[in-house]
């Protein structure tokens, strides 16, 4: 049976997961975990992929990444190809290290992305390895709590959704440790696109038409109507505090979740680049 085409495109957020061949270990000692992280940084920089969260388990990995340039396949081929070569040399073995090509889902960054980061950071807890995720050294949770620096991780993509800087760490920690049920069963869902109805419609349309680039103006206008139930012209002529506040919310949604470019959104809404900048920097 032919494989389904890989879901890819500019500006998308991915949940990537992969297992060792026959569910065998892909990390045996600390040096193996560290080498994977080194390669993650190298290939993320080379292919312009932002790593939002990760968890390295003995027999599998989870990554939450943002792919602004549509390079996810090249990024993963370089990452796992490089690690497989290293692992085989280090252990004196031959053959496949990863049992299958990597799996990926497209995830809406806000809300659903928050829950995905929680799911990833709780991997070691759910596996019974630790009772507090901070005690597991091979996830990005430490960076979120500012207990360890990182040159390549982008936790702000998630943390900015938790209010002002002074509160983010505490609120995110409470969110991860909370026992509230996740709205998505990440272990069993077969959905390739995870998000609200408007987001799913947009991404599925891009997949169906084979388009890899960012959404065009007509698609963005349609998404605004679906997600916010408002007409584009209202935003273009926004006047008054409430309408301008709504326009800033739309800007953050289109760029942060729909994968639209800043220039395209500025042109669509007929606002200046500075207005886009201010909307993205505004504390939610």
Q: What's this, in brief?
A:
The protein has 13 helices and five strands. It is α+β, with helices and mostly antiparallel strands and 284 residues long.
Mind explaining what this structure looks like?
- Helices cover 48% and strands 11% of the residues.
- The mean pLDDT is 85.
- Strands 2-3-1-4-5 form a 5-stranded mixed β-sheet, sandwiched between helices.
- α1 runs antiparallel to α2 and α11 (241-256) crosses α13.
- The chain has helices spanning 30-47, 72-91, 112-121, 123-126, 141-144, 156-159, 165-177, 197-209, 217-228, 232-236, 241-256, 262-269, 273-281; strands at residues 12-19, 50-56, 60-67, 103-107, 193-194.
- The chain has 2 domains: 12-177, Alpha-Beta Plaits; 214-281.
- The radius of gyration is 20 Å and the shape is globular.
- The longest helix is centred in the first third of the chain and has 20 residues, at 72-91.
- It has 284 residues and is of the alpha+beta class.
- It has 13 helices and 5 strands.
